[in-house]
Write a structure and sequence with these properties.
The complex is a heterodimer. Chain A is of the alpha/beta class. Helices cover 56% and strands 10% of the residues of chain A. A five-stranded parallel β-sheet of chain A has the order 2-1-3-4-5, with helices on both faces. Chain A contains nine helices and five strands; from the N terminus they run H-E-H-E-H-E-H-E-H-E-H-H-H-H. Chain A is elongated. In chain A, strand 4, helix 5 and strand 5 form a beta-alpha-beta unit. Classes of the chains: A alpha/beta, B alpha/beta. At the A-B interface, helix 4 and helix 5 of A face helix 2, strand 7 and helix 7 of B.
Chain lengths: 198, 355
């Protein structure tokens, strides 16, 4: 089975029990070849829906009252799907980092466009998958997150040490990278290693 | 040199404004009272209350720092510490907010069968299918009270019945629709179930463990370590609130606040009686112990033994495997020393004690 066939068969359950508008997400994901199961609108409907329809992934709002119901399904049954969480627009980026950094299978998405959700659905599936291609993709995403973290830390260090604005700290970091002919993330790591005995 | 007083005055908290999470339950009363009475002011704190739609949201927001501390199921804190079903994180129980006050409600059909048969197994057999019971979180207190109570009545909670997690505000509707045969959760949802004639309260959780710990004031351990003066000020603030709630007249006032739409949003008449220990002529198998908030501090002091019990139950029901030093884990969560420092610094009387 080719990877395209796999994603074409991905069964997606949408939980729609909050006021947050989901727009045409359902139709957009269906157009992209996902098998969109009947929506679940109350927590009490969720266990039966998961049991009978066996979704691969559940898309749910971070503020959904059904989240604890899903937790129970994941804890009590190893084959239960792990949630993909929707993300409110005002939400804290740290929340994404905490969840992804801790290696949990919950992915938090800002906004709900199908374009942005599709790669995250694939990554979430890769957590469970033996599919090499998807696993590589997962590693890439995690690498990007690690890069961003190093750059943030280096930036913060420059800001603190030199009383710089965030913009000026980033410019300084970028100049170092260009001077040394390396990536900004690597320049950030070198800087951190030079100043941080740990 | 300035002489050191016997009880040094509390240091100013490092953080003034704190975001506290809570879930729509009667035992959120200490937070709601502290907020309404501005009890934080004399300890240098401004409390911002943030109602949460689920315990999973409480957990995530404690981890991300979006909440500084929260009204949390004691078992939620233990589950986070162990990383069961989610990210593992070093957690702190600053104090116990209440003991007792939870219940088990059955549908009328099952409650009648239970009363007639006098035996739970026989009562469940009358359903002709596996019973479905609701509780509130996989590692939470209600799951553990329900499982223990069912097992005490000869019913294996995971083999002889089905257990589903439903948010407390949805329990009554699910019971009324026949999707549940019973549930274990906090109040006022049992009183609401009776008011809407969806079911009857058949047991109080004090039957499982008299004076059991229920909700904790929880934060990340890092928060308590980074901001010890803030943590102590927060403990003192909530202690004042718990002490205030020991007066029956104050519980009636608190019920009025809890009834408001931004707290629980059900009539005060369905909150106040059980907050006062009035179960309306129900007879239970064991003498009911009503909810307790303070009782001279007996309620609030966090103890390692409380956490050890939850870990032992996780092993019993297959949520925790392998060897671990349960005592050490529970002791690292329960901030007994920090609590003792804070409680020792608390004035013997004041806004809280005067009521």
């Amino acid at each position: 089975m080719s990877p395209a066939d796999r994603s074409a068969m991905l069964r997606v359950l949408l939980v729609t029990d909050t006021d947050k508008p989901i727009g045409d997400l359902r139709q957009a994901l269906a157009r992209r070849g996902y098998d969109m199961l009947d929506e679940v609108a109350t927590p009490a409907m969720l266990p039966a829906a998961v049991e009978k329809q066996r979704p691969d992934i559940v898309i749910i709002d971070t503020e959904s009252p059904s989240r604890d119901t899903l937790e129970q399904l994941a804890v009590m049954n190893a084959t239960a799907p792990r949630p993909v969480l929707m993300f409110s627009h005002d939400a804290d980026l740290d929340l994404i980092r905490a969840a992804v950094g801790a290696g949990v299978s919950a992915y938090l998405v800002e906004g709900l466009s199908a374009e942005r959700l599709t790669p995250i659905l694939e990554v979430a599936l890769a957590r469970f998958s033996q599919d090499e291609r998807l696993r590589r993709r997962l590693a890439e995403v995690e690498h990007e997150l690690a890069d961003r973290k190093s750059i943030d830390r280096a930036k913060r260090m420059l800001m603190d040490r030199n009383q710089l604005s965030e913009q000026a700290a980033y410019a300084m970091l970028r100049k170092r990278a260009m001077d040394q002919g390396i990536r900004i993330a690597d320049a950030a790591r070198r800087l951190l290693a030079a100043h941080d005995p740990h | 040199m300035i002489p050191t007083p016997a009880h040094p005055p509390a240091a100013a908290p490092e953080r003034r404004r704190l975001r506290l999470g809570f879930v729509a339950l009667s035992d959120a009363a200490p937070l709601v009272a502290a907020h309404r009475l501005r009890l934080g002011e004399r300890h240098g704190l401004e409390l911002v209350l943030c109602r949460q739609p689920s315990w999973a949201a409480v957990r995530d927001k404690l981890l991300s720092g979006e909440l500084d501390a929260a009204h949390a199921l004691y078992g939620l804190v233990c589950g986070m510490q162990l990383g069961i079903g989610g990210p593992r994180a070093d957690m702190a129980v600053l104090m116990v907010l209440n003991r007792n006050g939870q219940a088990i409600t059955f549908s009328h059909r099952l409650a009648d069968a239970f009363r007639q048969a006098g035996d739970l197994k026989a009562a469940l057999a009358t359903l002709g299918r596996p019973a479905v019971f609701g509780q509130t979180f996989p590692t939470g207190t209600h799951a553990m009270w329900l499982y223990h109570w069912l097992a005490d009545h000869g019913v294996h909670p995971l083999r002889d019945a089905r257990s589903v997690v439903i948010p407390p505000p949805e329990m009554v509707a699910a019971l009324a629709r026949g999707e549940l045969d019973g549930f274990c959760a906090g109040e006022p949802w049992h009183a609401v179930a009776e008011a809407r004639q969806a079911g009857r309260t058949v047991a109080l959780t004090s039957e499982v463990w008299p004076d059991h710990p229920e909700k904790a004031l929880a934060c990340r351990r890092e928060f308590a370590a980074l901001y010890p003066d803030t943590a102590r000020a927060l403990i003192r603030t909530l202690l004042d609130a718990c002490r205030w709630l020991d007066q029956p007249a104050n519980r009636v006032r608190a019920a009025g606040w809890l009834a408001e739409p931004d707290a629980i949003g059900v009539p005060a008449a369905q909150i106040a009686p059980r907050l006062l220990g009035d179960y309306g002529g129900h007879r239970f198998e064991k003498a009911p112990l009503p909810i307790r908030f303070h009782d001279g501090g007996a309620v609030n002091r966090p103890r390692a033994g409380d956490g050890v019990w939850f870990l032992s139950q996780y092993r019993r029901w297959g949520l925790l495997h392998g060897p671990s030093d349960d005592r050490a884990i529970a002791a690292s969560v329960a901030q007994t020393a920090l609590y003792d420092e804070a409680a020792g610094e608390a004035p013997a009387s004041g806004a809280g004690g005067a009521g």
